[in-house]
Amino acid sequence: MAGSAAFFDLDKTVITKSSVLAFGRPLYQGGLMSRGAVLRAAYAQLVYKIAGADEDQMARTRDYLAKLCAGWPVEQVNQIVAETLHDLIDPYIYAEAAALIEEHQSAGRDVILVSASGEEMVRPIGRLLGVDDVIATRMVVADGRYTGAVETYVAGPVKAEAITELAAARGYDLSESYAYSDSVTDVPMLEIVGNPTAVNPDRALRRVAGERDWPMVTFKHPISLRRRFASLRERPAIPTATLAIGLGVIVAAGLVLYAKRRKRRLALASSA
Length: 272
Hints:
56% of the residues lie in helices and 17% in strands. By secondary structure, the protein is an alpha/beta fold.
């Protein structure tokens, strides 16, 4: 039997911000972005939050980012992402999304992040979430540096095409699968699965979801996964400590009993 899967858009669906723009400051500090580029990125993020992103805006963003990263050393980018991931992304993961991902995994479904952001950023975020599979934008690399060309830009209809290809390769039944997104540009991705859900939908997606009777949900509680997992790890501490104390009491009692018996044997031996 074909299995099912759950496909999650990343920005504003799983995390509260744009994953690409979140790394603007450390890229600037690493000498890869100018101050002007950081300001333009911040402005783009503001526009994205207020108005969402249509296909033309996403195409302009693609071309701008491709040109911006031309010549960047891939290894340096990977290092910057790894060093700043927990500070820049971890506190901004929606608790509702993290719980939903775990729910799908517990049900035996594969979970796949599908994002227009670069694979170098999406894959580490996936690992943070316990998700191994990602479909993300890939840049052309030569001699360890980005050339400024885009190999695959995973946005709009391309997301749906990539999901369809993966489903065919793995045997997913898309009619039994799930998809989640906040943007109207992801309608192609949402409409190819049997269980689409609009998460924090922009105005245009809200209208489409209403027309097609798709569920709409609101995610609004960011949580640090480190804090969440730490609290889970701390729960067994009390019974473990209690067990250790109990074992200590048993050992101490055994030593006292041994000492009493040894003293009694010595007393009997001396009287004999």
